Structures
1.
Amino acid sequence: MSKKVLVIGEAREGSLRNVTFEAIAAANIVSDGGEVVGVLCGDGDLSEMGQEMVYYGASRVITVSNPDLKTYTSDGYGQAVYQVIQDESPEGIIMGHTAIGKDLTPKLASKLESGLISDATEVIAEGGDVVFTRPIYSGKAFEKKMVTEGLVFATIRPNNIPALTRDDSLAGSISEKEVEISNIRTIIKDVLRKSSDGVDLSEAKVIIAGGRGVKSAEGFEPLEKLAEVLGGTVGASRGACDAGYCDYSLQIGQTGKVVTPDLYIACGISGAIQHLAGMSNSKVIVAINKDPEANIFNVADYGIVGDLFDVVPKLIEEIKEMKVNA
Amino acid sequence: MNIYVLLKRTFDTEEKISVSNGVIADDGAEYIINPYDEYAVEEAINLRDEHGGEVTVVTIGEEEAEKQLRTALAMGADKAVLINTEDDLEEGDQFTTVKILEAFFEDKDVDIILGGNVAIDEASGQVGPRLAERLDMPCVTTITDIKIDGTTVNIERDVEGDVEKVETTLPVLVTCQQGLNEPRYPSLPGIMKAKKKPLDELEIDDLDLDEDDVEPKTKTTEIFLPPEKEAGKVLEGEVDDQVKELVSLLKTEAKVL
């Protein structure tokens, strides 16, 4: 049965996040030939980003521009999106499982008294049903889940459901909606940017992670250089965070972030079960560790037994050389 | 201050997961307080010590969850409530949980509710924000610092690695992120005292709910384990050669460069 499905888009630093395009692809499956309607909140002209959502497969896009939506607040965005939902009466809603998605969607689901399937890594249409696959126990197991009643509402994990190919011959209307926003109860005083490259771990295609073997905060420098050469971002094991080598926001594992990049390079990480839970579903895993018995080698596609301070700089040079020759 | 903590009993993070008869096998598994909820318990105790009042820890689950509640009491919480659904509910989802919690909080005078930002088992992260919406309270997720002055609340929260500074007012619901504090271990006197602290047990009937009111909106149709990862290639030879081989493999075989 075809459905009307809303996709709540999300921008970062003035451009749409890739997970928004992935959400359109997921919504396309959920809609089963119905309409996929993009929703974008913000301040100022959002039509260009709306157009981009159309190129990636949205049938049309509703933009909601309001000074109170300049930065995300759960109250502001909650009210804006809720008003769009009231107008459109969708049968499905899809959003990225990002910091904003995690904050906004449960509130909306609660207001709508609907179910919500969080953090899906796969969506398939089976008969008349839509079945979502999602990791549980941090990826130690998976479950298939479906909505039994009402709205098909889900968030999708970045990097798992491929976006449709961008097609700039696609056309769709971009319409503006005015909303009433009142009583924002949380005021954002300041944002301290700590992630220098602006790439979030959950969305990164390449992650260079350091463990206790990195030995100090300075020890992360070669890892940062390698990340730079590969266009990736740096993560860490709990061991490295607990030892104070880096911020907890970099932690990957059962507590911390669960990541699924295309390439994960573990440097000086032994591979405790809690860490493996957070990264073992990465597409390609490289382990660099002095200890040939380290658990990390059991999940690695490629392993180098050696000192990371010897291996990583050589790896940087080799990749640079490959790029020059390419 | 009336401080409430939402707590969930979860598998220990050390546990390997296996599936039998379509469900996660739990025989012999060790259980703990969900690690993110442990930050909530610790912060609640600190807030009480600073501002006075009482910390009540609430969980929904089976009889066995009493053990985790006693642990929270041993850490320093004052009271505990177990909403026992063992006899009434076969299945539930986040809608179910929040419907029950909403009924529980209906007649409570609340200043702050703390919970984990996510549970390490089902990992939906929905219960906190869902409950805040039902109770019409502001909600701040993934907090790493909190200061309360009168009714003004200043919070730092983790937003994908950045720090957002937020001001709000009581009553508020917050969900805790790693980095907020270092949860204490229960002390021996704490454990002794915990045995005498009040632990109330309720059933959904006591909250004027029946099974139909809390019927889940979603269902799990299958649980399975990810395919075992085959052990990969450990490269050999001089480091320089290994590095060359690795880059070549990443480019031609894995196709990620």
Note: The CA atoms of residues 233 and 246 of chain B lie 10 Å apart.
2.
Amino acid sequence: MSATPAPTTAPAPRMGVGKWLREHAVLIIGVLVIAYMLIPIAVIFFFSFNNPAGRYNFTWVGFTLKHWENAFGIPELNEALLTSIKLALLATLVSTVIGTMMALALVRYEFFGRRAANFLIVIPMATPEIVMGSSLLSFFLILGTGLGFRTLLIAHVMFCISFVVVVVRSRLIGFDRRLEEAAKDLGATPWETFRLVTLPLILPGVFGGAMLAFALSIDDFVISNFNSGTTVTFPLYIFGAFQRGVPVEVNCIAMILFGITVLAMGFTTWQQRRAERMASIRPEQEELPPAAVTEIAATY
Amino acid sequence: MGATLKRRLGAYGLLAPGTIWLVLFFLVPLYFLGKLSLNVNVQGVYYPFDWHWANYSDALSLYDTQFIRSFIYSITATLICLLLAYPLAYAIAFKAGRWRHAMLLAVVAPFFTTYLIRTISWVTILSDESPVVSVLKFLQIAPSGHVLFTAPAVIAGLVYNYLPFMVLPIYASLERLDTRLMEAAKDLYANAQTTFFKVTLPLSAPGVVAGTLLTFIPATGDYVNAEFLGAPGNQMIGNVIQSLYLKQREYPAAAALSFVLMAIILVIVLIYIRFAGSEALMGEEGAAI
């Protein structure tokens, strides 16, 4: 008895721990999976401060800031990045306009061929990128068109349209049509109604679709790989540099892009909240997830 | 009557640019892919269309290993993704409380950095001297202490890259779920397990179906992970298609492989949707898609 002084109290906390673990098992697994998803980003971040011995930035050698100072000091890399940004901006602009038009048509009109149109929008999202990339290349080869920025733009707009339609449409479904009727009753022309009522209301959705299109375009590798010719985008530069060693500056630029995206997401969230305050599209929702999250989740 | 005609014309007018773009640059190229796959190819010089079906049998008999390997890798990766994603989606939807948005943000955060660099960072994580591999070695999961440039490394890369595509649809379907149904199950004396298997899981099936498709389809055609994290013996069919198109310039063989890949995936997807009996993908208003 005296050898074991606390036999009654000892099992209690242990059982507590076991119970706690069991109750929170799902959450613990979830946090571990999130860690798995975030580790590579941390690696990219830390290795942007690495001072690798050779050309390969795979093992940690020592801390340096020189690659951050030189982040925009590699001409080919800068050129690739500029090409990517230009391409993404143009592809976003075109696909957002075209995609928003399609979303408007699909939500507000009943017409013959609606199912076919829906199918045409879904099917590119369910096709492996390599099939889209190789079929476009076959198309350009048989037509005899040279490959380059133009063919990249065609391809990027093509794969962005569907995503823009899906995002914008998910926003339009909760849209209060009576606001437009009210504008019409007050003597607004169709164009005035669109510009002053419809557009401001659907703008957060359109902006979300545009952001998704930009993100898809600037990060696209597979389809670009097939249709770029000699044009080099940021992902194509990285792929090309892999064998001879990717410069550390790429990590710095990746982190800069990461930062900009986070800021842009904050901005969208703010925009969305403001728009919702202006006209309560979704009145009973106190807490809204960040815009881009809903945008991407809505895609599925 | 005039008004309905005008409305209908309005709808077609709005649809026209996007439809034309998708038909011209998505559907028509598929036709050209099929056409190119039937050209004769002799020593890199290719001749016009000739119903050359031998391209298919030649390509398939040459690269059947890579084809089978692609499906083994992508199906394994999809199953692992499902096992990892479901608890995470469940945790975000029901257990995270005020951390919900932060966790969702963490799920999409990988999208904010370039896909290729993220994949390359796995070369660091899985290199022989890395702490991760030491732990795996200690746990006897990787007794040789060598993970990089093996099949598990390629599969780990695939799992990592496509995990968000599994988490988000499952989360979306769980979030839409009426929690009163779970309470009702409890009121009717179902235990946690029964509630999960009889109520929660069936109701989240559309998310699972969408997630598995969104993971399986791109993973099968992927060639970046095999290129960066695998050895030559881990090449997937994507690597073959890419190299035949862009390096060897054996277009007809490459087009034939690409066409077969699309056809097999299409058949698997159709069977799967029929089998799963879900309208998750093609449902009319079906929430999103």
Note: The first strand of chain B starts at residue 39 and ends at 42.
3.
Amino acid sequence: MDGPLLRFERVSKSYPAAARGAAHPAALAALDLDVARGELLTLLGPSGSGKTTTLMLLAGFETPDSGRILLEGRDIARLPAHKRGIGVVFQSYALFPHMTVAENVAFPLEARGVPKPERAARVARALEMVRLPGYGDRRPAQLSGGQQQRVALARAMVFEPPIVLLDEPLGALDKALREEMQHEIRTLHQRLGLTMLYVTHDQQEALTLSDRIAVLAGGELRQVAPPRTLYDEPADAFVAGFVGENNRLAARVSSVEGETAHCVLDGGGEMPARLAEPLRPGAPCLLMVRPERVRLDAAAGLPAQLTEALFQGDHVRLRLALPGGAEVIAKRPVGEAAMPGPGATAMLNWEAGDAWAFRAEDAAR
Amino acid sequence: MRGALWAFGLLVLLFLLLPILVVIPLSFSSGSFLSYPLPGLSLRWYEAFFASDFWLPALRNSLVVGTVSAALATLFGVPAAFGLWQRNVPGRRLILAVILAPLAVPAIVVAVALLLAFGPRGLANSFTGLILAHAMLCVPFVVITVLASLARFDPVLLRAAASCGADPWTGFFRICLPRIMPGVAAGAVFAFATSLDETVVVLFLAGPAQRTLPRQMFAGLNDEISLAIMAAATLMVLLSTLLLGAVAWLRRPRR
């Protein structure tokens, strides 16, 4: 079939002010987003960004004010949840506590009127896929958090939905288990060619899992790109700050040369950066540079004073103060030539291509 | 101070229990008078009760009216509670106030109103009328216990059911109802106990054929002071205690 598997077309949702509270999802403004068949796309954003709203609209637990949601070419935006045929994995697992694991996984088949013998075979296969064969007779309460989440996955996949939604599915697990489950979800996705829409606020998880990441903030889509592109070429200052760590330095454009802007930092000193957005000379801007791209071995650049050096095992994390009072974090490999101790001065520099210049007002948004 | 508080507490308990404690031994009296000391112990009044065509039809009426009105109250109360539990119900507090009104309105007012309403429609002096009246009085108990059960039910489970392809009916019957069943059962038992105990409305609405146990006791007091009435009273105490015990057992905290 041509076209994307799933398409959001100008989808908007707002909530009356009276109903809005800390627990209520954020509004969504004219979302356009495509999900390709077989893709694992992550909706990434802080709380209140609209990522959960997007998921609720897709699952059918909320109805958009306007716009269309096309699944395999059919508008499902106003279809009740049980008629959408979309698999959902909930953060709280939402397993049915009075049913066994097998009954939980069989429930979507039962609801669809799949005959009993076929049900049993498909449940067994689904439990095998999530590496829980032989757990069918247990109750959810007898399983660990990770096992419960696997059962939830099996229940969401067993009826072979065109797309599976995962709502912060690993939020309640500890770090080691979370990494194991990330690997497992990734493996299932690849082995079965499943299309998945994954919601998380954890940028590390998004980078690890996704084919593409959609960054949302304030109900708006900021950027959709593969993890590498998102990290290396953020579309705006918000994305640059939210995905991975970034130094932000207030500056003013002094001159523009093709793709490169020369910027005078507010605290003094001129540094180059790539233009992320069109900027005229004289415009205030925000320089962003990744800590691992900050070099300290340069002969020229910004004079900085080292205030702290933390050994992190695989790298050293350095805190540097610039003359104007601004602070820069640098990450350097442990093996690098002798590091100056705290109090020492160093010349700080970066390649023009490693820093980005954004419009200053982006940061405030 | 501590001792005084204990003593006060025991006195209050005694105050509450004494009427019952006085009635029960009397029902085992071998004599025929409502007085202590008992001349001896016997089961003669129970034999009289269970052999009597004065008491037995009343006991049967009580059980029939109680069962059917509890069933009706459950049928009305469970969907009402489920509806009120949903978010964004307009006028939720008002609806709840109306449903709970029978608890607040004096029984005599309800009884008079029902008599005026049922009389012209031929529902006075009928089982149908009495059962409808009791069902109405019992609905609040069902709604309250079921709402308490629903407060512990995770609404995400219904979303999960919908995402599995289950329509709202299936979601309710397969996912929600099994989880709140103890509350539903407790509500039904509570309703039955309420109907069993109800006297004022019965006094107004029941004809001779519909007399329930409390109503017959009332009549028995006027007609003849037989100690069989004490056997009836003891049986009612026993039944009520069993029923309230069942409610407490059904609503016990789990896990």
Note: The radius of gyration of chain A is 24 Å.
4.
Amino acid sequence: MMGLLVFKENIKRLYAKCSLYLIPAVKFCLGFVTFYLINENIGFMAKLKNPVIAVVLGLVASFVPCGVTAFFAGCLMIAHVAQVSLEVALILLVFILVVMMLYYGFRPGDGYLLLLTPILFFVNIPYLVPLLVGLSGSLVSIVPVSCGVCVYYMMMYLKQNAGVLAGSTMSEMAARFVQIVKNVFGNELMWVMVAAFAAAILVVFLIKNLSVDYAWSIAIVAGVITQLAVIFIGDFNFNLPISAGSMVTGIVLSVILALIYQFFMFAVDYSRTEYLQYEDDEYYYYVKAVPKLAVSAPDVKVRRINSRKAVKH
Amino acid sequence: MLNEEKIRLMTEIAMFEKKAQKDVFPINRYFKGDYISIHLIRSFAVYTLTCMICLALWILYRSEELLNTMEIRIFTAYAKNITVYYAAGLFFYLAVTWLVYFRRYTAASKNMKIYQAKLRRLEKKYEASASRESEGEQRR
């Protein structure tokens, strides 16, 4: 444990020292992974599928706010989608426009969630999103997370039906549009996941604010149970195509990552909790003070002591 | 000689100014009513535009059905339903807008008061040090 705490302190020191370079580097990684995953999964336009494009866009993303990166990702997605189906591109465009105008008009600063949710779906740990958002975000973040889930399932629909959609003629456009809307918005799995994520964010957010010991750990476990419960109820009602193996793997990985996140963000020592009670003219105060777990990183200085050269006789 | 307390105060003020440039100072240029009204008008325009886009998509979705039933009665019923949904949504969205910007203005005003108090404290410290210096010169 002590080693981990020292490691954490070292990371904090490194961040404080090099944040000027670390923040753009992290933003580059996030941007590059986003554009790369979009190209890999729905890269229907050959010109944009080039990895150099992902690198260049990633470089741009390292200097602009996350909201702008999300906008670029949306444009890239629509360009790829339009290559296969103009109808899906239109639906996606309207969806993104509506979300940006209605929600991001308030400047909430959580545009990265719209990107992060589909990315974590692609790497099979989507269950991590509600845990992190519930622990550190606000309840309003349910909106971008839900939209991220919808964007992912739209992309999946397109990926699975690209052949059928690309082969259709223009005369069938109206009928195809109706079919696509029905399929995309009638996808029960998408709504079940939206419900599971929203419920989990709510549960995690409420529990982590409780004044009980190990509130964050309890919140993580409760969040996972909530997600599982909603998915099982959805599966029971709609017979959803969910693979149990990948779900269990994803959930276990998500819990481990959430616990690592907790270690970095909320490391406290409950064994040294103190309860105070005092009063002023108007109130009685019952205060619970939980000390943070902290160690000072060892400041290692190497002093070289040159031994005298042995005199040979 | 360095005045540690003054330096700390100046650092706090500089940090606040850096953070407040985006959130607090622009808000403080308006009266509360004006600030909220501007955003309500903006939200009204945005919501109406969004509804028009969604309506266009809905017409495209129902185009076949609409073309097959060219009856004034049905169109009137559709128009009535759309107006009700639009009005209900607009009311909800404007209520959310009012709440968000009311809270934002209140928070900004509170922060501005703290900032002004810190500025006053700093000014007093400057005045105190200036008076000390003048007293010293008079003694000489």
Note: The longest helix of chain A spans residues 2-42.
